[in-house]
Amino acid sequence: MTPRILILCGALALALGVATGAFGAHGLKRLVAPDLLEVWRTAAHYQLIHGAGLLLIAALWPRLAPTPAAWAGGLMLAGLIVFSGSLYALVLTDLRALGAVTPIGGLLMIMSWLTLAWAACRSPCL
């Protein structure tokens, strides 16, 4: 994971997060049950937060220990994809079993933030 890839992925995640949020608010409103619409909102919300998190890691990169920073970015991207992706798929397919995958994405997101903290602790520049 490099700063360039983090910026690219973060910007794309944010653009898609806005698009999926708008689609949920306008396109899905009449098509899915209110509980599934809330699931969609949660997916978009976490996607936006972690898209910004990817940009944060890229911005802090020069001041962080590089190996844990790379791991933090990779974990965050993986968590974003698994967490939000599983929730989007759950809403679109109504396969409730996909909800079992979602916590894995959440754990990856938590691990990414903890790894970012580790990258800061290991940094000689802070």
UniProtKB/TrEMBL annotation:
Entry-linked InterPro entries: DUF423 (IPR006696)
Residues annotated as signal peptide: none
The UniProt record lists the keyword Membrane: yes
Membrane topology: Multi-pass membrane protein
Keywords for this protein: Membrane, Transmembrane, Transmembrane helix
TM helices/strands, residue ranges: 43-62, 69-91, 97-121
Pfam families on file: DUF423
Subcellular location: Membrane
Keyword Phosphoprotein tagged: no
Family per record: Belongs to the UPF0382 family.
Descriptive protein name: DUF423 domain-containing protein
Organism: Castellaniella hirudinis
